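FAQ: What does the model actually see?

It sees only this:
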Amino acid sequence: GYPPKKDFPIIGAYKEAKMYLSEKIPPHPDWDNVMAAFDAPERLLCNDDITMISNAKDLEDYEEDYETPELFSKLEGFNFLFVGVFVGGNLKHLPQIITVFKRISGVNLIIAGYGSKAGIVERMANENKNIHFIGPLVPDDIPKWTRSVDATLRLGDVENINSKYSTANIFFSSLAAGRPLLCNDDNVSGHIVKTKETGFAVPFGDWITFDKTIRYMRDNPDEAKRRGSNGKKLAVEKHNWAINEKRLHALYDRVILNR
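And it is asked to produce this:
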């Protein structure tokens, strides 16, 4: 969504919490704990002491009939979807991403998003025949665009602690859609992708490996599909909104009983 105005009361509390967490959270995730939490049985994720809610997606949104966007009738090759918010320093690495994609034949990069720098992104895209900027996507359109591509793309800046620890929306969208995610391996999402083989993970800033991985995915679509299917299995078995909904109901029931 859009950030609240600067004088919005919650901003002060947010900044205080962010400062506290920045001091308390280790600079590097403990990968064993990351996977233990991701694979934890339900009794550890929803009980009297803790309720874990993720931004997992509603599988019904990713399984209903949909109409493929018209853009795809004009595209040939292996298609990637990149969704972002283009403000401030968020564009820092996008020019390099575009530089890599524009020199690889048989692939297309579809960029979606909004923000004060969206016009810059659109101009960069228009300079290259295999880069396509489609502007902002409303949440209801994310499922059909994710399902229409062959893979998704997410590179999170490792200098940002939130990027290291958070699981991006596109991570769960990719699982629900059964599409492989190409991401960096030094954050939580990337470590899960690498461990569970739900996509491909590369070191952040290693543009040579990034280039080679895009070419590998283009030349090995069956392997890309296999990894996407691995993600879909995880979404169906555990990482979906229906399970989160049950956890929320259980949490509300406990709150009411303990009043």
